[in-house]
Amino acid sequence: MDENGVSRRSFAKGIGSALAASAFFEPGLAQERRSAPAEAESDTDVAAHAKSRLQIGMLVYPGLSALDLVGPHPFFAELSNSQVHLLWKDRDPVVSSLGYAIVPTTSIRDCPRDLDVVFVPGGTSGTFAMMDDDEILSFLADRCSRARYVTSVCTGSLILGAAGLMKGYQATCHWRFRDLLPMFGATPVEERVVIDRNRITGGGVTAGIDFGLVVASRLRGRQAAEVLQLYNEYDPHPPFAAGTPAVAPLATRDAACKALASAYDQARAAAARARERWHLA
Q1: Is residue 257 flagged as an active site residue?
Q2: Average pLDDT score, the chain
Q3: pLDDT at 52
C-alpha cells in the first residue's frame, strides 16, 4: 500500500472499472485469436458479460511451478468486478516447486459451481501427481463442463488432458512436453498462446504473462488488457536469444533436454496411464 493508502490491486481495479464503463470498451477487439479455426464469442455475448461478476478458479497444488500461476494471476485479479479463487482440496498452504508456500483461498468443495474461467498451472513432479489424482480430475471435469473458458499454462494442459478435457482441441504446452498432447487426443501447436473454441492454453512458464493478457482481453476487452499491460510495464526484451528451441544454440537446447529427461519420462508415463483411463487411441 502506498503513502496515500491505495493498494496496487485497488488502483488497477479502479482503472478496470472505469474502462468497463467507458467508451473504450471494445468487445470486437476481444475476438482476436492466436491460433485455431475456432468460433469466438460474438460481440453481443462479450458485451453481455462486460459488467458481470467474474468468477475465476485457479488451481494450486503441491509442487506446481509458481510462475505459471503468478504470471497470469495479476491480470485476473486486477480486472474490474472479478473474484479469483485459489483452489485446492483444503485451505492449508501449498508448497510450490521452489519451496515457498501459496495459500489457497477456497477449497474445491466450496468452489462456486459455475466459473467463467478454470485455470490449471503446470510444473513437473507435482503436475504428474495431479494427472493421477482422481479427486482433482473429477473436480476439473465437472467445473470445466460449464466454464466459459478452460485454460492452462505450461504442463497444466497435460492435467486437463488427463481429465479428458483436451480431446479434439488444438493446444500448446511447455516445448519439451508438447509432443505428449496427442496422447490425450489433442493437436499440438507451436505457439505461445493457442485458442481453440473455449480452450485457451499457454506455453511454458513465462508464456503465462502473454496468456493472462489474452484471457483478460476476452473477459473485459482489449483496451482493459492493454491498460493492465502498461500498468504492469510488461515490455520484455530478453538478454539472450534462447527462449525457444528454434532459436536457442544447439548446446543450450541439448543441456535443457538433458535436465528435463527424467521429468519427460515421468510425464509420458502419467500420460499413458491417463490415455488408458480415457481409452484414448
Answers
A1: no
A2: 88
A3: 81
Domain residue limits at 257: 8-278
What is the DSSP code (8-state) at residue 164?
Answer: T
The answer to whether residue 2 is domain-embedded is no
- Kindly state the cell numbers that stand for 32: 482476436
Beta bridge partners of 56: 84, 117
Residue 128 and residue 225: Cα distance in Å, rounded? 32
Which one of 111, 154, 173, 257 is the catalytic residue?
154
Burial class (CB in 10 A: 0-12, 13-18, 19+), 24: middle
pTM of this prediction exceeds 0.85: yes
**Is 271 part of a structural domain of the chain?**
yes
Q: If you write DSSP's letter for every residue of 82-101 in order, what string do you get?
A: EEEEEEESSSS-EE-TTS-E
Any idea what DSSP says for residue 209? H
Distance, in Å, from the CA atom of 93 to the CA atom of 99, rounded to the nearest integer, reads 11
Instruction: Express as a percent the part of the chain with pLDDT over 70.
Output: 81
Q: Is residue 161 within 8 Å of residue 227, measured between CB atoms?
A: no
Does residue 109 come out as left (phi exceeding 0), alpha (psi in the -120 to 50 range) or beta? alpha
Q: Are 229 and 180 in contact (CB under 8 A)?
A: no
- Domain of 84, CATH number, reads 3.40.50.880
Nearest to 49 by CA among 74, 22, 23, 81: 81
Model pLDDT for residues 23-64, shown as the tens digit of each residue: 333 433 333 334 433 344 555 555 556 668 999 999 999 999
- Residues 123 and 266: their CA atoms lie apart, in Å, by 12
Spans in the chain with pLDDT lower than 70 = 1-51, 280-281
Query: Is 78 within a domain?
Result: yes
- Structural domains of the chain, count: 1
**Does 1 map to a domain?**
no
Cβ neighbours for 231, distance < 8 A, ≥ 6 positions apart:
11, 12, 15, 78
